[in-house]
Specification:
By secondary structure, the chain is an alpha+beta fold. The protein has five helices and seven strands, in the order αβαβαββααβββ.
């Protein structure tokens, strides 16, 4: 039915537009995605630091061994027993630095240690500061004799080992047994303090 000059189709068009707009709005709302927050990465755990393990304490810096002075130039560098310090070829990462140093003392050219001497064992008591060195029989049987030679033997061993922190005395053994002396000058039946091996007769 038509009214005079008016059309009944416009309300229908408006209703259709409203419905279409609602559909668009609802669709846009359904399609909206909330931004996702990335999960924080699990914290990385650093590997544990290596634990240093030393069998015996290392001497600080360079190690020295001692040979007999052979010339006037040597004597100007030597101590009261004509012993000249020489850098010992001991590896910085050695796990047995005391033994290595004493082996170098035995093997160095001009060493006062009797030829053929071997180290049967070496032990260090950290609580008492005592180093016990057990030499082979050659330490006594190959000793040439003489007060000066005896002083050089004893001092070279004691001075080499006294470079290590905590060492206070050295006990000399030969084939597991205490010895009274090498030549009668030094009493080796008891531990020799690191500062007491220096005096020696010059005979």
């Amino acid at each position: 039915m038509k009214l005079h000059g008016l059309s009944t189709t416009r309300p229908r068009i408006d209703a259709w537009l409203v419905a279409a707009l609602l559909v668009v709005i609802v669709s846009a709302g359904c399609g909206h995605k909330t931004s996702s927050v990335p999960e924080s990465a699990p914290p990385t755990t650093a590997p544990p630091a290596p634990v240093a393990q030393n069998v015996v304490p290392h001497a600080p810096g360079t190690l020295f061994v001692y040979r007999v002075a052979l010339s006037d130039s040597d004597k100007r560098q030597s101590d009261e027993n004509d012993l000249v310090p020489v850098v010992a070829p001991v590896a910085v990462d050695s796990r047995t630095p005391m033994r290595d140093a004493l082996l170098a003392q035995i093997e160095i050219p001009g060493s006062p240690i009797p030829k053929g001497s071997k180290i049967r064992s070496i032990r260090f008591n950290q609580a008492s500061g005592l180093v016990t060195v057990d030499f082979s029989d050659s330490f006594v049987s190959k000793f040439s004799g003489g007060d000066t030679a005896e002083a050089q033997v004893v001092n070279s061993v004691v001075k080499t080992l006294s470079q290590f922190p905590g060492v206070q005395s050295v006990q000399f053994l030969v084939h597991g047994q205490k010895v009274a002396s090498l030549g009668g000058t030094f009493d080796l039946s008891e531990p020799v303090p690191t500062g007491a091996a220096k005096p020696a007769s010059s005979g």
